[in-house]
Amino acid sequence: MDNVTVFTHPLIQHKISILRDKRTGTNEFRALIEEIAMLMGFEALRDLPLQDVEVETPIETCMTPMIAGKKMAVVPILRAGLGMVNGILALVPSAKVGHIGLYRDEKTHEPHEYYCKLPSPIEQRTIVVTDPMLATGGSATAAVDFIKQYGGKHIKFMAIIAAPEGLKRLHEAHPDIQIYVGHLDRQLNENAYICPGLGDAGDRIFGTK
């Protein structure tokens, strides 16, 4: 899968291990999600287009590169994907933020859309879709479907942990997008939870059950 990057950086792996610990509290968990997103984003955004602009330094005027065009859109899958947004915005503060709301049917585990709001013009932006967990791949696949329907073209997907089943499904459905994963876990269990996983990311980010 040439379009898939699974990170091996020691800082990312260390922070994911702390996320997994059930003793990690809400405040620390939330901060770690942002930090990991920023570390992943540093690599995922290495191909942002640049253009030379004129800048006057204290010494002289020069041409120097800055991010070109309409820049970026960060699109979290609600609600857990919100936890990764600030990590990306720390790198590109000018990025616009859209939202996609999906809920998973408890019996079929398939996603259903209840909200979609994207910055315009979406087709001119590099779009980073965020969701800490790539489990069955249903929500991720549906989110990318919606973005493409609205005209999105340059799409990246970022997940902190993924199950092989979900990664395979997203890759097969959208082989044209770039997928970034912090860690590839072992498998899904009978309830479609990632094993060993880290529990429910949304509940742990927002302190709910």
Question: What can you tell me about this protein's structure?
Answer:
This protein is an alpha/beta fold and 209 residues long. It contains six helices and 13 strands. The protein has helices at residues 10-20, 26-44, 85-89, 138-149, 164-173, 201-206, and strands spanning 4-6, 50-56, 61-67, 72-78, 96-97, 99-104, 111-117, 126-130, 133-134, 154-162, 178-184, 187-188, 194-195. The strands form three sheets. Strands 1, 4, 5, 6, 7, 8, 9, 10 and 11 form a nine-stranded mixed β-sheet that branches. The longest helix has 19 residues, at 26-44. The mean pLDDT is 92.
Map the helices and strands:
Elements: E1 4-6, H1 10-20, H2 26-44, E2 50-56, E3 61-67, E4 72-78, H3 85-89, E5 96-97, E6 99-104, E7 111-117, E8 126-130, E9 133-134, H4 138-149, E10 154-162, H5 164-173, E11 178-184, E12 187-188, E13 194-195, H6 201-206
Parallel strand pairs: 1-11, 4-5, 4-6, 4-8, 8-10, 9-10, 10-11
Antiparallel strand pairs: 2-3, 6-7, 12-13
Helix pairs in contact: 1-2
Q: How would you describe the shape?
A: globular
Mean pLDDT level: 92
Structural class by helix and strand composition = alpha/beta
Rounded radius of gyration (Å): 18 Å
Oligomer: single chain
Approximate helicity band: 25-40%
Count of helical stretches: 6
Question: How far apart are the first and last residues' alpha carbons, in Å?
Answer: 36 Å
Topology as a string of helices (H) and strands (E): EHHEEEHEEEEEHEHEEEH
Report the sheet with the most strands, covering strand number, pairing sense and barrel closure: 9 strands, mixed
- What percentage of the residues does DSSP assign to strands (E)? 25-35%
Number of strands: 13
List low-pLDDT spans: none
